[in-house]
Design brief:
This protein is of the alpha/beta class and 504 residues long. Helices cover 40% and strands 14% of the residues. It is built from 16 helices and 13 strands. Bound molecules: ligand BES and zinc ion.
């Protein structure tokens, strides 16, 4: 803030004042571009290479061979270790590969489509289920203490979550012909979701951005910047795309897989913003593009975040939340996830959700949580049913709201869990207890905090360009203040010199 000058009675003082506007640029708010460097958006997409590198379950190699054999080609197997192989596949074959994987393997052969050969090769190191901690962070033990100490905030927020709103968002998303990553309606779904999320807030610090992957569908990223620990980022995600036989031209409502997860995320976003939540850590809600074709959207976001040194401290995946197929409500997936964070989720369910839970495995890298897990980031996936009781209609034209019960009572439990996760990991400040000393002092301290805090608006620390090369917003403010003081000192010296020389 620019300090106020007293009455301008002395001419030297006027000289100081005259210099103030010139100095004030030092404190001026940076441009929108400077405040929000394009972290969520990838750099301008390079022209798509003809070949992609795919890590794939070795049991699915015959399927991949059959796909490339359709145009007389031979499959290039670049490496294999244990039950994973790395293959090179033409871009044009990817849709057929993903269709055949879904058709032939019915959830026993996962695959990941990588942006580089290096990336694909790193998938060969084992990340085997259920408890083996392959991720570097997991090896070192959890970085976070996972303490539950925000009960009043969570309990105040949860009643605002509304199953009817989740139901109607699922209805809107599943009314689109499909949300395939290559189709016009898949591309339109990204814009639709961006606009929906944008309608929840006019806060200038909250951003809703599209992440351009170079194909028609974009990922959508909502960011609530952290106040005091902005460089630590929490991600809650789901996948926006849907798939069924026929690709671009298919009817793929994907009501459960995964309009339910996106609608759950959307309701959490609405309530966090309605309540004006300001977490200490940065919170990002991400609707990933292109999960169904090899986790492509999340893999490239994780890669970009690593490149930029974005420090994600936890990731929660909401993929299929509204089909209740089992005797218990929430199933914590144990493979490709963090055991410590899963235990945290179990405590959140016990304390806040009022639901039953159990543990299960997917058996392969079945959704976007696996992209974070393989980068060493604690990831979890709470799932709607036991794997063996799963919704059999996903990836068909029958995955509709009607076949999930035509309501969102089940998804509401996942919204409660995700909101509790956001608050308990995000750690917004607790409101002062009524009548406490802090309560009466709160307006004054809020004002001074606003004036002196290291505002995430001026330079979002989570978006620092590269590891090590960071300058936090606090550093930036301190530098601005130092520069202003030296400008004022200079002006004062000049004014004294002018006065003294005039007297002589
Ligand atoms: N939502 C599913 C994953 C799923 C399905 C988990 C059933 C548990 C039970 C996801 O969208 C999906 O279809 N994943 C692909 C794998 C991906 C790597 C292409 C799959 O399961 O085939
Ligand atoms: Zn799916």
């Amino acid at each position: 803030m620019v300090p106020r000058a007293g009455p301008a009675t002395l001419s030297p003082m006027r000289a100081v004042l005259a210099l103030l506007p010139a100095a004030s640029f030092l404190l001026a708010a940076p441009s929108a571009e400077a405040r929000y460097p394009r972290v969520p958006g990838a750099p301008a997409p390079a022209p798509a290479p003809a070949q992609r590198y795919v890590s794939i379950g070795a049991d699915a190699l015959a399927t991949a061979r059959a796909v490339v054999a359709r145009h007389g080609a031979q499959l290039g197997v670049l490496a294999a270790a244990g039950d994973v192989a790395v293959i090179a596949v033409d871009d044009a074959d990817l849709s057929a590969l993903s269709e055949q994987m879904h058709a032939r393997h019915d959830r026993c052969g996962g695959f990941m489509v990588h942006d580089s050969l290096d990336d694909a090769m790193s998938a060969l190191s084992p990340t085997s289920p259920p408890a083996a901690p392959a991720a570097p962070a997991a090896k070192d033990g959890p970085r976070l203490d996972y303490k539950l100490d925000r009960a009043p905030l969570v309990q105040d927020l949860l009643p605002a979550l509304d199953a009817e709103r989740i139901r109607s968002t699922i209805a809107e998303l599943s009314a689109m012909q499909n949300r395939y990553y290559q189709s016009d309606s898949g591309a339109a779904a990204s814009l639709w979701l961006r606009d929906r999320w944008q309608s929840f807030t006019s806060r200038p610090d909250v951003t809703i951005e599209l992440f351009d992957h170079g194909y028609p569908q974009k990922s959508v990223i909502l960011t609530i910047p952290g106040t005091t620990r902005a460089s630590e980022v929490i991600v809650i995600g789901g996948h926006l795309d849907s798939i069924a036989l026929g690709g671009r031209a298919s009817t793929a409502p994907g009501a459960d897989d995964d309009a339910s997860g996106i609608a759950t995320l959307t309701e959490v976003a609405r309530v966090l913003l309605e309540r004006d939540v300001r977490p200490a850590r940065t919170l990002q809600l991400i609707a990933y593009a292109a999960e169904e074709v090899g986790l492509r959207g999340s893999l490239s976001i994780v890669r970009e975040y690593r490149r930029r040194g974005v420090d994600v401290v936890g990731a929660l995946q909401l993929d299929m939340t509204n089909y209740q197929g089992s005797d218990r409500d929430i199933w914590l997936i144990q493979d490709f996830t963090s055991a410590a964070q899963n235990e945290f989720l179990a405590r959140l369910i016990d304390s806040y959700v009022g639901a039953s839970y159990g543990y299960d495995v997917c058996g392969y890298a079945c959704s976007d949580h696996a992209s974070w897990h393989r980068a060493g980031i604690p990831a979890s996936m709470p799932f709607e049913s036991r794997s063996r009781d799963r919704n059999k209609l996903i990836h068909t034209a029958k995955d509709t709201l009607e076949t999930s019960g035509n309501n969102a009572a089940h998804a509401l439990k996942f919204a409660r869990l995700a909101a509790a996760y956001a608050i308990e990991l995000g750690k917004p400040p607790l409101p002062p207890a009524p009548g406490s000393a802090a309560d009466s002092a709160s307006s004054a301290s809020a004002a001074s905090a606003a004036a002196s805090s290291c505002s995430p608006i001026s330079a979002p620390a989570w978006a620092r360009p590269s590891p090590g090369a960071s300058a936090s917003s606090c550093d930036a403010s301190a530098r601005n203040l130092r520069a202003l003081l030296s400008a004022l000192g200079l002006a004062l010296a000049l004014a004294v010199y002018l006065t003294v020389s005039r007297r002589l």
